[in-house]
Amino acid sequence: MYTIAWLGNPGASYTQTRHNAWFLAIERLQELWGFPKFSFEKKWNAEISRGVAYEQDILLVKPMTFMNRSWGPLSLTTNFYKIPPEQIIVLHDEIDLPNSKIKYKMGGWHAWHNWLRDIIAKLWSKDFHRIRIGVDRPNEQGDVTQHVLGKFTAQEKIQINNEKDKIIDLIQEVFNGEK
Description:
Blueprint: E1 2-6, H1 23-32, E2 39-41, E3 46-53, E4 56-63, H2 71-80, E5 88-94, E6 102-106, H3 114-123, E7 129-134, H4 144-148, H5 154-163, H6 166-175
Parallel strand pairs: 1-4, 1-5, 5-7
Antiparallel strand pairs: 2-3, 3-4, 6-7
């Protein structure tokens, strides 16, 4: 079984923010693969959808905690299903990539992301898959928090929407052992 987890912030006020760049993409996966609608699981504090795609049993997880506390729901689900780190795919935004640029990475350093640092510490492993989408750094030397919690411009939103389906190819490559 694989777990694909989206890291972002819950609630309608965060839906269109840069931190939630993957929000629509994980729902696109659920629809594309014909999985049931997401349902809230109180014991995991996450919305879950489970099904089979590419001959793989897949658990889609949307933690209903804030970004820096995403490990709790992810930990509970992966421990319950005994999913090893190499079968976890984490989708997250990346300020060090240009807007809408999608990159894959297996393992590696946390790059000062508190939530990645937390995931690595709790898994006792950095060997999980990461699919990152660029949201740019702020133009001015300002508060990065305001930038990632800010809403996309109309142009940024178009760029993100044009690129988000690339994750499907990356995920299939992971399942095929190509990544």
